Batch of 2 targets.
Target 1
Amino acid sequence: MTGTVRGVLAAVGVLGVIGVIAGPVAAAQNPAQNTAAKRPPGVPRGEVAIPVAGESDVATSNGPLLALAPHGPFERGRAVVVMVSQGARTTVRLKVTGVGRTAAGRTFGAHLHTGECVAGDGAAAGPHYNADVINGRKPVRVDREREIWLDFTVSPSGAAKASTAVPFAPKPGDRSIVIHDHATDHHGTAGARLACLPLTWT
């Protein structure tokens, strides 16, 4: 993944991912901490430095959802996802809009998958991105700490939000966020693949 201050702030603007950088911002704006000893070289006294870009990797995707099943509630849906990795911790935020009103009140599973998002071809997305599998760890565990789960419940307006944080940084590649027909169960399954959003980083 790649990230700059501009990229981070753009992501924050889209999804309100304030928590991702609130800690560094608060520290930088605290007069008691804004001393010469703590101020980075080249930053004049009285100015604020936000130490995010050099320590964070950011991946974003924003656009229409690609349908994986015909006549589903996401045919006119759009989504935006922001993934920010800081060291070995990754925060992911998802926002979905334009969902069919008949889906209001329903909860759908959504996960990061290893493969690409291809309209009409749910199999192209491959399996869930599982940190144990990717890193060759055994036994493989399936839970919300080894995978990125973003289940959401649709509001009456056809919108939904989800967020999660995991103790790993996904490796770069052509990935996808896949939306499933049901909420995720304790085995990590969530039914048929209904829609997806591409998410690529290098």
Note: The chain has one domain: 57-201.
Target 2
Amino acid sequence: MREVINDIDRWHEQGKKVALATVVKVYGSAPRPLGAKMAISEEGEMAGSVSGGCVEGAVAQEAIDVLATGQPRLIEYGIADELAMTVGLACGGNIAVYVEPLNW
């Protein structure tokens, strides 16, 4: 959380909505550990990482959708997942990422 808190504070001060994505499950080899976090502003700005770069764009889009609906969601990415392959998760593992809106 330390790597994203300054950005979250800045976006909050600017009146932007913010979502927080957290790795909640790791199966096999994964680029980032359990608990890794990424913050995403409503404008698509990102801080932190949940996958070392391989699925960040897809998670950011999910986060923008979460901010629009106000509904959190759990997303899974893995080597057998067609979406994961298109966004580059080829490390052989699977991750589950929980994306939630931060409410002030």
Note: The chain has three helices and five strands.
